């Protein structure tokens, strides 16, 4: 076998091995998307019921709760960025980070100091590399988040929003995550969690036009709201975590699918080159034999005479 | 047919039970409350404790609820909690072990959780 042919054969072998790996990763990601999607669906009833309850209390309560009223001059804001622990997901993390940076810039332009909270190693690495300050960080559960994880994330955020902004608290809470729209479409988006804008909440709950019943509150509207809002924040963060996980798996699936396709194309191209090299080798051998034979024939024909 | 109300018992990560009922008894922070069909719209904070649902076919469903909310409007009652366990799902021996362990470690919240589970099972 010629040297060139051997090189092609070796490359085909290595690309085939890579293709097998990416194909396996694609299939794993595909099964995980389905699982993650199921979790998103399972968490929906809680979120809708909670949203409905929040709307009911917030519109029913007369006085203003700190979590539902906008500060007159907001000076500090918190941004929670949901990235993933692992890469190999195409532009998933860079899109989320870009969205967070855009939002941060907007807030800073509006004269607010921004505290960044990050979930997922990728986002943390990005910020650490640029030596930016991170107010809080969490890792290790982005592939399959549980409600307890959402609670641990929510706790310091709720504490920050309840603290006065003069004492290191924040006036606003934003969340940046990758919304899972469909298997093919995921979009990184920023969303303001607190203070609540009630119209938007009502819109989500689908109760805008419906007349709201007058509720009896047990023990009182303020106490109910006090208890409800942290749960609401937790549930929103939980939902965002789940969507972000589903989006990450979908992005991985897509990235691995194109890697598999590319490997296939590469194998085709290499096989063609290898065939051509083999053919060239054969042609050369034939012409060498023919050339040798005719030289021999010429030589013997000359000696006969 | 007796009047009925529709009950949704929902945990953070799943829908636990839903169906028609004639009476729901739950413990709010200001005391036990019983909700029957046609009750005034209500929104309350729940204490950890057992919730009893008398279904319209005469059965009783008991669930251990760890904190959460009760909301009732238009004959629809929703019980929301981070953790909800039906009494059939609770492993009594495990809950008892957990209670003992919590007592010996003086872990108040774990003790309360185990206690709520056991109470839910015993009131079945």
From TrEMBL, chain B:
F-type ATPases have 2 components, CF(1) - the catalytic core - and CF(0) - the membrane proton channel. CF(1) has five subunits: alpha(3), beta(3), gamma(1), delta(1), epsilon(1). CF(0) has three main subunits: a, b and c. This is ATP synthase epsilon chain. SUPFAM superfamilies: Epsilon subunit of F1F0-ATP synthase N-terminal domain. It is found in: Cell membrane. Its main location: membrane. Residues 5-82 form the ATP synthase F1 complex delta/epsilon subunit N-terminal domain. HAMAP family: ATP_synth_epsil_bac. It comes from Streptomyces durmitorensis. Belongs to the ATPase epsilon chain family. Produces ATP from ADP in the presence of a proton gradient across the membrane. The lineage of its organism: Bacteria, Bacillati, Actinomycetota, Actinomycetes, Kitasatosporales. Keywords: ATP synthesis, Cell membrane, CF(1), Hydrogen ion transport, Ion transport, Membrane, Transport. The gene is atpC. It is a peripheral membrane protein.
């Amino acid at each position: 076998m010629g040297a060139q042919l051997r090189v092609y054969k070796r490359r085909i072998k290595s690309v085939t091995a890579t293709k097998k790996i990416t194909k396996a990763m694609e299939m794993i990601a595909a099964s995980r998307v389905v699982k993650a999607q199921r979790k998103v669906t399972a968490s929906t009833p809680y979120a809708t019921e909670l949203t409905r309850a929040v709307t009911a209390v917030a519109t029913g309560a007369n006085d203003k709760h700190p979590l539902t009223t906008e500060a007159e001059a907001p000076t500090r804001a918190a941004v929670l960025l949901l990235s993933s622990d692992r890469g190999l997901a195409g532009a998933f993390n860079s899109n989320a980070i870009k969205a967070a940076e855009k939002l941060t810039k907007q807030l800073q332009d509006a004269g607010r100091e921004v505290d960044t909270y990050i979930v997922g190693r990728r986002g943390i690495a990005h910020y650490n590399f640029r030596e930016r300050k991170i107010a809080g960080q969490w890792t290790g559960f982005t592939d399959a988040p549980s409600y307890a994880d959402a609670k641990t994330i929510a706790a310091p955020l709720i504490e920050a929003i309840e603290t006065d902004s003069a004492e290191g608290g924040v006036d606003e809470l934003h969340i940046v995550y990758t919304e899972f729209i469909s298997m093919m479409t995921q979009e990184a988006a920023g969303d303001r969690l607190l203070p609540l804008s009630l119209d938007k909440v009502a819109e989500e709950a689908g109760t805008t036009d419906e007349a709201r019943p007058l509720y009896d509150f047990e023990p009182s509207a303020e106490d109910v709201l006090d208890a409800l809002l942290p749960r609401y924040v937790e549930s929103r963060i939980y939902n965002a975590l789940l969507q972000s996980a589903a989006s990450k798996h979908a992005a991985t699936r897509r990235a691995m699918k194109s890697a598999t396709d590319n490997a296939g194309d590469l194998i085709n191209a290499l096989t063609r080159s290898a065939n051509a090299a083999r053919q060239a080798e054969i042609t050369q051998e034939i012409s060498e034999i023919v050339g040798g034979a005719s030289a021999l024939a010429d030589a013997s024909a000359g000696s006969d005479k | 047919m007796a009047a009925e109300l529709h009950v949704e018992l929902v945990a953070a990560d799943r829908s636990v039970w839903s169906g028609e009922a004639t009476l729901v008894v739950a413990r709010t922070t200001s005391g036990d409350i019983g909700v029957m069909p046609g009750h005034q719209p209500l929104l309350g904070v729940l204490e950890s404790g057992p919730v009893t649902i008398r279904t319209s076919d005469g059965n009783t469903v008991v669930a251990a609820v760890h904190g959460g909310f009760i909301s009732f409007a238009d004959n629809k009652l929703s019980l929301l909690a981070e953790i909800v366990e039906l009494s059939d799902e609770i492993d009594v021996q495990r809950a008892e072990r957990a209670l003992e362990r919590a007592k010996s470690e003086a872990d108040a919240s774990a003790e309360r959780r185990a206690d709520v589970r056991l109470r839910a099972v015993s009131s079945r």
